[in-house]
Amino acid sequence: MKILVINCGSSSIKYRLFDMNTETVLARGLIERIGLEGSRINHQPAGKQKLKWEEPIPDHRVAVQKALRALTDTRYGVIGDMGEIDGVGHRVAHGGDKFSSSVLIDDEVKKAIRELSELAPLHNPPNLVGIEAAEKVLPDVPQVAVFDTAFHQTMPPEAYLYSIPYDLGRRYGIRKYGFHGTSHKYVAQRASKLMGRALEELKLVTCHLGNGASVTAIRGGQSVETSMGFTPLEGLTMGTRCGDIDPAVVTFLMEKKQMTVQEVNEFLNKECGVLGISGISSDFRDLEEAAARGHERAQLALKIFAHDVKKYVGAYVAVLNGIDALVFTAGIGENSPRIREEICKEMEYLGLKIDLDKNKVMGEEKEISAADSRVKIWVIPTNEELMIARDTREVIENRGKM
């Protein structure tokens, strides 16, 4: 079975084609600047040279056509024709509380995605555009929606409800949803295999640490708590997002700076986080370089980030009543020994002890816990696209079995 995975943004499409018999990537690509001047295609067939070229791409339907043309090209393609594609998996940011698993896309699913655009205005609309574009180009191929929020729908009410009037929360869907679910799900499953233990018996804390970052408590393979909330703004200090703050700060800023609702929302999402603290960058690599040179605010930004992660790890060990493994993933989690060390420092009381030599790893799958650590500590590179492909295959194979 061959599955095409599509991750559609407002002006870009990322794609990967998987051979699910071996779970290998046959080709991957990125189409950028859709509908803009300078549209370009980056296409990488497995084991072959990466190709780049520019050509007009007016909309997402044409972009999907270009991707399929690249996949079937006689020179650099990897399949003979589009008939070899058995399914298309689409990453969708927000499924609200309507979807607790990946689903076959039909008119009702598209309607729900459209309605949930109110909660994810930057993500759901382009996700839906990608779905409709793929349907037009591949009308007879099953399309599957894989939601970032679905994995977290197993959280109990005491974890996902906010302390606002209950009826108000229900009416407007104001609750914690959580994000990065596909990544947390993947690394949890992978940790189970690496440890040789059933996922159902494990208590895990997974840390998806990138420019956007979240921590999740996983019991028996199910999310029971996560740091992102109603939107991805809640939780950890991030690249440009403020994370947890006193809600009164919002109205205080609006009054003092005469900010509109839109302006304060943009400010909290794009001008805060480690960028706001450091004053130099939202890229953690830049901050680590500056910190090594003695830049005090870069050092402070890194300490605040590590402190936030440590705080959530400790809280989630309490929620889980124990921990079997701590997992680091995503750009920072996979590639920053310094930040992993800072997070794990002085956590021995929880049974977490890092091995400084093992921790020098970057971008590789490896256990980094000390020999006398009671809890395993892992670096596991995430693979959200493979998780989407797996979910897509499962949905397609289970059609008609209900």
Automatic annotation (TrEMBL):
Sites where the protein binds substrate: R91
Cofactor: Mg(2+); Mn(2+)
Keyword Magnesium: yes
Co-factor remark: Mg(2+). Can also accept Mn(2+).
Protein's name in the database: Acetate kinase
EC number from the UniProt entry: 2.7.2.1
Active site: residue positions: D148
Source organism per UniProt: Calderihabitans maritimus
Job of this protein: Catalyzes the formation of acetyl phosphate from acetate and ATP. Can also catalyze the reverse reaction.
Pathway(s) annotated for this protein in UniProt: Metabolic intermediate biosynthesis; acetyl-CoA biosynthesis; acetyl-CoA from acetate: step 1/2
Domain of life, source organism: Bacteria
CDD domains named among the record's database cross-references: ASKHA_NBD_AcK_PK (cd24010)
Subcellular location as annotated: Cytoplasm
